[in-house]
Amino acid sequence: MQAISHVQNLNSYLIIRRSKPRFDKPVRLAVPVRCVYHSDSVQFPNGVGSSRVDWQSSCAILSSKVFSQDQDSGDKSNTSSASDHLAAAVNGHKTSLDLNLVPLDKKNKPQPPAKQPPQKPLTITDLSPAPMHGSQLRVAYQGVPGAYSEAAAGKAYPNCEAIPCDQFEVAFQAVELWIADRAVLPVENSLGGSIHRNYDLLLRHRLHIVGEVQLPVHHCLLALPGVRKEYLTRVISHPQALSQCENTITKLGLNVTREAVDDTAGAAEYIATKNLRDTAAIASARAAELYGLNVLADGIQDDSSNVTRFVMLARDPIIPRTDRPFKTSIVFAHEEGTSVLFKVLSAFAFRNISLTKIESRPHRNRPIRLVDDANVGTAKHFEYMFYVDFEASMAEVRAQNALAEVQEFTSFLRVLGSYPMDMTPWCPSRGNP
């Protein structure tokens, strides 16, 4: 496989397959939605528009502002400086478009424009978004305000506009329908394992992984003000949160029933809305602040090293780079099942590429494979999809060669994303009370 240039269509290498998968079907929407805003994947660093069209429109607006100022003031000495100041915001020094600004004197006679310094040309840096791109973005997450997913969205994109969604699939559709720019969704937890629903949705939808973020999970036991622990008869939370605090709840001497709900912050909201004085929730300290609950016990997770890994999803992939650690996520399948797994893994081992995750999931549209043998009879086997994360960028030749070899052994191969690794310092949650 040849190295990929920056001007190539990234979709040409992000989807590699020999035959169209049977499970890849378009999602039919309940109501028609018309896109009222379109943004190219190109972003300019100075904040004037998020696409080439917006950028050119901004240039035209700047031109009209300068022209009107010249007519009002008629001051030739300030015309050049005003136009320079406004146009400088487009490309650092001067706009690369010829605005043809002609200053007018008091008698409305055109004057030749002053000699301008050479314009700064656009470079690949101006046209390529950085791995950590954007801050003023609309980011979808599953849950309600106060959920851990909202905290992950804020860590991934500081100062973003977080958009809550009631289901994981709604967050995917929010990005596809241009309601949101990004989605931040959990894919695995250090105690509870993988969130299989989101892995299945990654195959159903055409979004790309553009980054990851790891968030330490710190659980609290929350109840209405004035409620004491001995009055509780029920504890509600997300199923994984309940399992992550099982031992601590027992040590606290609570004789309560456990009840699962959709998310942790939703449990806190439910208690506050229904004014339940016999029920506690397992959620974050921020959820207690938002919904007016008291923290009865802090740091009740059984293991202080409780971390959830989230992925950032976008409509377009980012350009892989080699100037920082990258991770690549792929999924593949083969008609012969697990018999080719060793050959696939050897393609990475021979190139010294470290695998950080490998997991199999039953094929949704073809779960059972029948094998006929005249001597034994008919055997039934599960058909599997294999998800693999490895530490290499698609810009590296060794990663391209590895996937070229993997393609020879598989009937389906898709790159879910090549993205920067989360290298932020990590510290475990506070100890149990």
TrEMBL record:
Gene Ontology process terms (BP):
L-phenylalanine biosynthetic process
* Domain spans labelled ACT: 329-420
EC number(s) per entry = 4.2.1.91
Per UniProt, the ranges with Pro residues bias are: 110-120
Q: Which GO terms describe its cellular component?
A: chloroplast stroma
Entry's localization field: Plastid, Chloroplast stroma
Location of region: Disordered: 103-128
Extract the signal peptide range: none
> What pathway or pathways are given for this protein in its record?
Amino-acid biosynthesis; L-phenylalanine biosynthesis; L-phenylalanine from L-arogenate: step 1/1
Q: Which Pfam families does the UniProt entry name for this protein? A: PDT
Task: Tell me the keywords, alphabetical order.
Answer: Amino-acid biosynthesis, Aromatic amino acid biosynthesis, Chloroplast, Lyase, Phenylalanine biosynthesis, Plastid, Transit peptide
Question: Cross-referenced Gene3D superfamilies, in alphabetical order?
Answer: 3.30.70.260, Periplasmic binding protein-like II (3.40.190.10)
User: Record's superkingdom?
Assistant: Eukaryota
* PROSITE patterns, per the entry: ACT, PREPHENATE_DEHYDR_1, PREPHENATE_DEHYDR_2, PREPHENATE_DEHYDR_3
Summarize the protein's role: Converts the prephenate produced from the shikimate-chorismate pathway into phenylalanine.
Name listed for the protein in its UniProt record:
Arogenate dehydratase
Q: What is the native source organism of this protein?
A: Gossypium stocksii
